[in-house]
Amino acid sequence: MLCKDKCRISTSTLPASHKQTGFTLMELLVTLxxxxxxxxxxxxxxxxxxxxxxxATAISHLLTLQLAQEEWRARNPTYxxxxxxGLGLTSDNYTYSATNLSGTTYTLEATAxxxxxxxxxxxxxxxxxxxxxxxxxxxx
Length: 140
Description:
Layout: H1 25-75, H2 82-85, E1 94-99, E2 107-112, E3 124-128, E4 133-134
Antiparallel strand pairs: 1-2, 2-3, 3-4
């Protein structure tokens, strides 16, 4: 039989196993756009939580140092330096120091380093012998 006008086979007459399936380019682009928007919102929130967790570790270290200062002072005439306390607390995100050391005063300080320095408003955490913690919002 020779074909003249109706030789084309329409896809609607093909069996289901031969129909083309998949996603169009437009569907893929819309999906990628949605993922991009979600990621642009979620990533900064994630970063804030990471900074907050690292800050919590620094606060824990400062409180440990504060307790060690009081123990040191109970046995010595003045408060001690970080080296005197001998705790060996280390962090990739903070450096610790003890200043204003005397028989009645001390100030412990944690200073953010590296990426943690982007912890706006909480770059430096301090606590003293009166349990005054600054900045107060960062200690919550």
